[in-house]
Write a structure and sequence with these properties.
The chain is mainly alpha-helical and 204 residues long. The chain has a domain at 55-190: Tetracycline Repressor, domain 2. It has 10 helices and no strands.
């Protein structure tokens, strides 16, 4: 059953990223996953419910993977730089995942939570510590700027315009500088060694 569900998830990620949710049918999913229509219905009630399940699944597994390593650096600026680069690198390593996040990350509440949750906490802490030079009422906008930059950097990588290292480091550096980190330090934090993410949990 897990194998069938994983095939459906993989097919769903690709089709949703290519066409959007409303343009994907049960027949499309069945054909892409190599299963019967009845198999799709026996696992998911509707195409929309499959989309929500896929978004939740991606959010959960990436959240767990990132949380395990982002708790290590005490400096919120370093955590922010690492988090940005983790997302960009993941798009390089798993383009299917990346295209899904790029298409729906800004509009789907579940995925927005993945992009905004930890950065909001780090920015709040950084402001309290004087690490970031932002007003408290600017944090929500700052998180939106950062998440938009991450999605744009992922897109650059997926379209072959930049390597993940260049796009990730540049985005992290520019974000940190925008938040008040001195230029030299922002560059150092954005190019420091990045630890590996644990193995993904949703692949077939």
């Amino acid at each position: 059953m897990k194998t069938v569900q994983n095939r459906l998830y993989q097919a769903a990620l690709r089709l949703f990223a290519e066409r959007g949710v409303t343009q994907v049918t049960v027949s499309d999913l069945a054909e892409a996953a190599g299963v019967a229509r009845g198999t799709v219905y026996s696992n998911f009630k509707t195409v929309e419910s499959l989309f929500e399940d896929a978004a939740t699944r991606l959010t959960t597994e990436m959240g767990i993977r990132i949380a395990a390593i982002l708790n290590q650096p005490a400096d919120p600026a370093q955590r922010l730089a690492n988090g940005i680069r983790f997302f960009v690198r993941r798009a390089h390593e798993d383009p299917l995942w990346g295209r899904f996040i790029v298409r729906f990350g800004a509009t789907t509440p579940t995925l927005r939570g993945l992009l905004e949750g930890a950065p909001t906490r780090d920015l709040t802490l950084g402001v309290e510590l004087g690490r970031f030079h932002l007003r408290a009422d600017q944090i929500a906008c700052a998180v939106a700027v950062m998440s938009g930059g991450v999605l744009a950097a992922m897109s650059l990588v997926l379209e072959g315009h930049q390597t993940w290292r260049a796009a990730g480091a540049d985005t992290a550096e520019l974000v940190l500088r925008a938040f008040g980190v001195p230029a030299d330090e922002a560059q150092r934090l954005a190019t420091s060694e990045l630890p590996p993410l644990p193995v993904a949990g949703y692949s077939a």
